[in-house]
């Protein structure tokens, strides 16, 4: 009977091994968990997301993430974030300059905030040329904002998406695709959670502005033409 006991024990070991392997293989579509189980510790390289959850929690707990999101929403609500360009051009026309002056007025109110300018083109032309053109458009916006008193240190990056993100998917020339978009991207190195002089001024400004009563007087509608 001893051979029978040995056989049963062997079969049990095989069954347990197979069950563990099947369970581990089911943990991921590529069997990476199972593979790591049977290899030495540290053989799998971190893919770059280690610590992201902790970082995200820290941003939320200190109010930084919500603050950035809220400012981005305010920026897109209170000003026009996009300017458009003529075909194959990075020249800012009068309308674009007026929009950028509006952006600059808003940006000056928040000295702790940084911005990115994204350049886009329509789908006419080669990918390489459009990336270059989108970059020139973004650079033109950065240069104009700088003339309005905005430090280039606060314009975090100049990025070109070229023709890869059209608003209107058409191979024809389309002005709405020939654009730049200005977005809130984060904070300057003097962190906003540190109540330095500049950020204190921002807090005071926002507090005072919130206490100003609405003095708008509703008047009868006056027709000025147009439609």
From TrEMBL:
Keyword entries, A-Z: Cell outer membrane, Lipoprotein, Membrane
Q: Which organism is it from?
A: Yoonia vestfoldensis
Recorded superkingdom: Bacteria
Q: Does the keyword Transcription regulation apply?
A: no
Q: Which GO terms describe its cellular component?
A: cell outer membrane
Coarsely, its chief localization is: membrane
Q: Where is the OmpA-like domain?
A: 72-188
Where is the protein situated, by its record's location annotation? Answer: Cell outer membrane
Q: What is this protein called?
A: Outer membrane lipoprotein Omp16
Q: What are the leading ranks of the lineage?
A: Bacteria, Pseudomonadati, Pseudomonadota, Alphaproteobacteria, Rhodobacterales
